[in-house]
Design brief:
- It is globular, with a radius of gyration of 16 Å.
- It is built from 7 helices and 10 strands.
- The protein is of the alpha/beta class and about 210 residues long.
- About 35% of the residues lie in helices and about 30% in strands.
Length: about 210
């Protein structure tokens, strides 16, 4: 299954059918006020489907290390923004900053603590004062249902954390932070929609002072 998701079209179909993509769009619309002319960096942009959901006129740079995803994104959405097949590190931060905002949708749970720290450090240096980092990831919570926990245990990302784990790492770089754990944004359908499993999501908005 994890290998099949490497195909851009299959990955997006999985995101849409599982409700993951609509949840990301809802979260962005609820927590952010993105305006035309703002410079945005999207780390882990995948095939780029989020870009048409953003306001027209944003200055967008998407980053992903999967060549197939980036080729797909450039082919379908290259007229709306720019896509780069590379890691976002300190050199990229210097080249593409300053930015008004950075998106990391479903990325942090793919990073171990060391990579997490290096990436967020680069992001912090790329943001202008007042700029934001927005993250969106699955999260373990006390009393979580067995099926929801199983889905997180078997995610492609091997570093799903409890909420405090995400908070502790982000708070090392940002003083102004908002943290939300939501289970109403996504309900994973099983058995042809006869059973729906709410999935807990950790959402953060961190602002550089």
């Amino acid at each position: 299954m994890k290998e099949i998701l490497n195909a851009p079209s299959v990955y997006q179909l999985f995101q849409v059918c599982g409700g993951f993509f609509s949840a990301r769009v809802k979260a962005i619309n609820q927590y952010l006020e993105i305006r035309p002319g703002q410079r945005l960096i999207d780390i882990g942009c995948g095939p780029g489907h989020i870009l048409p959901k953003l306001p027209r006129g944003v200055l967008y740079d998407g980053f992903d290390v999967d060549e197939k995803y980036i080729r797909f994104a450039n082919r379908h959405f290259g007229h709306l923004g720019k896509f780069h097949c590379q890691i976002f590190d300190a050199a990229a931060a210097k080249e593409f900053g300053p930015a008004d905002g950075v998106l990391m949708n479903g990325v942090l749970h793919h990073l171990d603590d060391k990579s997490f720290t290096e990436t967020v450090s680069a992001i912090h240096s790329a943001l202008r004062p007042g700029g934001f980092l927005f993250t969106f990831d699955g999260v373990y919570v006390p009393g979580q249902g067995a099926v929801a926990k199983w889905l997180l245990d078997n995610d492609r990302g091997k570093f799903v954390r409890e909420g405090q784990g995400y908070r502790n790492l982000l708070a090392r770089f940002f003083d102004k932070t908002e943290f939300h754990i939501r289970k109403d944004l996504i309900s994973v359908p099983l058995s042809y929609n006869l059973v729906k499993i709410p999935l807990d999501l950790f959402i953060s908005k961190c602002t550089r002072s």
